[in-house]
Amino acid sequence: MDHFVYQGDALYAEAVSLEDIAERYGTPCYVYSRATLERHWHAFDRALGDHPHLVCYAVKANGNLALLNLLARLGSGFDIVSVGELERVLQAGGDPSRVVFSGIGKQASDMRRALEVGIRCFNVESVPELERLNAVAGELGVRAPVSLRVNPDVDPGTHPYIATGLKESKFGIDIDVARDVYRRAAGLAHIDVAGVDCHIGSQLTRLSPFLDALDRILALIESLRAEGIAIRHLDLGGGLGIRYRDESPPSPAEYAAAIKKRLGDRLLEILLEPGRAIVGNAGILLTRVEYLKETAHKQFAVVDAAMNDLLRPALYQGWHEILPVGRRTGETRRYDVVGPVCETGDFLGKDRDLCIATGDLLAIRTVGAYGFAMSSNYNARPRPPEVMVDGDRLHLVRERESMAQLMAGERLLPMES
Ligand code: LLP
What we know:
- By secondary structure, the chain is α/β, with parallel strands linked by helices.
- 29% of the residues lie in helices and 25% in strands.
- α2 runs parallel beside α3 and α5 packs across α6 (127-140).
- The N and C termini lie far apart (60 Å).
- Belongs to the Orn/Lys/Arg decarboxylase class-II family. LysA subfamily.
- Residues 29-368 form the Orn/DAP/Arg decarboxylase 2 C-terminal domain.
- InterPro entries: Ala_racemase/Decarboxylase_C, DAP_deCOOHase_LysA, De-COase2_C, De-COase2_CS, De-COase2_N, De-COase2_pyr-phos_BS, Orn/DAP/Arg_de-COase, PLP-binding_barrel.
């Protein structure tokens, strides 16, 4: 559920008309709904209820500072994958003791910074990483809290680019060797074994892969306990899917209930790292139709947003609903909605039945996650602004990039060379 709904024939974000937003900030423009964002975070938090838990929002889905700050105010934890994301969380007022650090390529300097600010846990993905972390923590005279990201070898049934828990994946430590690695970790002077972690993929629409992974991990935890290695928390990563078109993913409540049932009376704290399910439906991309173009085979709506603003359709054939901001009456025609970038892959939607005219506004839905976060300056296009709606209030939370920002940091060679 979200708060982008029609009032009459005009599409609104909460109590603000998208037409007004376009007038004020131009297009393309990302628009977020605070009520939707907070509703989804609470859905996870409430679903886990009294069971000790921490919802660690995956910053990679959308790292806008205002958005992170709203989540920090709710008491959210954060899942980060770079020192840049850590700095964003700190800048947004996030609590470092609620931060978990994922990712397979952590550098010594990243580890140092994370240890200095006192993060909650490192999700370690290989033996060399474990050893490096032990050394860095040793230099600082501290012990690094660690969970090993295990790869449980389950098929999440999602797009191959976003499946991460299969044997051939670069992520995690094979569950069959994880016990040995835990033994090793337990013997390292500057490592504190805290938990087990996994993340099997993104946009999962069924519970069974999550539960298969959980069963394998619980068996691992039991066998570690038998050896005297105590695991305090279980981090199941992110991955819960959302509805883009006709998917019907389990709700956070169903997901949490299934996890708690499997855990029984085990005293394990549950950590989750949802990104998409918190922020996906909380954002739309507002764009204007520049031209309606007809060829012998197709009709195109050429809009002012492009693959550099929203990469998901081009990269994963991601399907996003496209709605007119002002509904017209009349015949619909079938359009490919495309951007101005010079690539055939630059489309936002194909074969969409729309009743539109040049100059109309369109809303591309469900782009709060991996929308702006994956945007680029390709074709020298400044990135769009981001706006947060809160009831009837409108906050610009990121300005449109200027031409000066587009070229910032570049240097010419000296004239004499
Ligand atoms: N934790 C870890 C370790 C992850 O790698 C990810 C996502 C998450 C949590 C959050 O997963 P989520 O709840 O958002 O599914 N750009 C792609 C998605 C890539 C996901 C990468 N990892 C897309 O647009 O579909």
